[in-house]
């Protein structure tokens, strides 16, 4: 299975989840994703995702001056981003449960409709 295709499908929720705990700037978010196990994630993918989530109204930004280089643009979840994360988490959980059921040994178990 191609992990890069899976990553493309979950990068939005992964970025939102990283920002749920703490605001971050682009490289910091990339580093935190890699520490979480997304070693294959590319810089351009993360920066593109941040732009898309910001344009979609799920993030706000603010600039923090830096003594050791250029100013850093920090990203933070707003209310819309938190709602989006909650919805995406439910969708992911339902999807993962379905896949786990399909992949488990024995006949597939019927799922309850929600």
What does this protein look like?
- This protein is an alpha+beta fold and 114 residues long.
- Helix content is 59%, strand content 12%.
- The protein has four helices and three strands, in the order αβααββα.
- Strands 1-3-2 form a three-stranded antiparallel β-sheet.
- A hairpin with a 7-residue loop joins strand 2 and strand 3.
- Helix 1 crosses helix 3 and helix 1 crosses helix 4.
- The chain is elongated and about 60 Å long.
- The two termini are 29 Å apart.
- The mean pLDDT is 90.
Number of strands: 3
Rg result = 17 Å
Head-to-tail CA distance between termini: 29 Å
Return the average pLDDT rounded to an integer: 90
SSE topology:
Blueprint: H1 3-21, E1 24-25, H2 26-35, H3 43-55, E2 59-64, E3 72-77, H4 79-103
Antiparallel strand pairs: 1-3, 2-3
Descriptive key words:
3-stranded antiparallel sheet, 3 strands, 114 residues, alpha+beta
